[in-house]
Every structure is written in structure tokens, then in C-alpha cells.
Amino acid sequence: MSRFLFLDNVDVQQAFSVHLRQLREQAKLSREALAERSSVPASTIKKFELTGEISFRQLLLLWQSLDDLKRLYDLTVIAPN
Known about the structure:
Layout: H1 9-26, H2 31-38, H3 42-51, H4 56-66, H5 69-73
């Protein structure tokens, strides 16, 4: 019997939030330092880390500042049949 993992948008938002927070902490960046690097306000970063809520544009700016944006882009590439 296979097990299915059912995710909703909140689960995915939280997963992105946790991932980027871990990367920020590994890089030893404060929210303020990441705000300067990404142009996303520190208050928005805090809200994102606590709730997972953020605009798509700001998510991309944070991701670009902490991770390889191509990794995120690659999720949109459909594999040939």
C-alpha cells in the first residue's frame, strides 16, 4: 500500500520559510543584514519566517540572496516524456 503525502499551500509556504531561515542562519546573517542584501524589509522577513506569508517577488529576492535561483527555476521545467 502506498502512502500519500497531502500538502496544501500553507505546508509549502512553511517549508519555504523554514528552508530560507535555515540558510540565513547558516550564513550567520541577521534579518537586517539579509534585508540589506535582498532589498526585502526586515519586518517582512520576520513575518515570512513566522507565518510563511510573503509576496512571490519578495520570495524570489530572498531566494536569490540565499540560494541558487536556478534551483527554484528548475522546478518549472517539464521533463520530456
